[in-house]
Amino acid sequence: MSEVQRLFDALKRVQEPKGYLFNKDRERAFELLEALQLNKGRYGYMACPCRLVSGEREKDKDIICPCVYRARDVEEYGSCYCNLYVSEAWNNEKTAHEYVPERRPPEKLFL
Q: Are 29 and 85 in contact (CB under 8 A)?
């Protein structure tokens, strides 16, 4: 079993009961999980692969996956910013697959 598959299985067990599913596009989900693992190797934590990372845990704590913006993104758009975590309705195409705008404050975007 690959490291990405192990991460997928572990996170799925924790996140699905909370109502957060992985994107049904398994290839996309695994690409994002692999990028999370790369960031963990680089920085020591699983920083969001879709955002600019400073490399300083304290500055990046809001974008450590699952980021603090995920709940609002999934509630409002059916998906988090990266499209890794989604709602059941999003996966079943019962909600539009809209662009999820960046919620991270501008002062944190260019660290």
A: no
Contact (Cβ atoms closer than 8 angstroms) between residue 86 and residue 19:
no
The predicted model scores a pTM of: 0.94
Closest residue by Cα to residue 21 from 64, 83, 68, 69: 83
SS3 (DSSP) at 20: coil
pLDDT values of the chain reduced to their tens digit, one per residue, 111 residues: 899 999 999 999 999 999 999 999 999 999 999 999 999 999 999 999 999 999 999 999 999 999 999 999 999 999 999 999 999 999 999 999 999 999 999 888 776
Cα angle 4-18-40, degrees, rounded to a multiple of 5: 30
3-state secondary structure of 86: strand
| Beta-carbon-side half-sphere exposure of residue 31 (alpha carbons within 13 Å) | 9
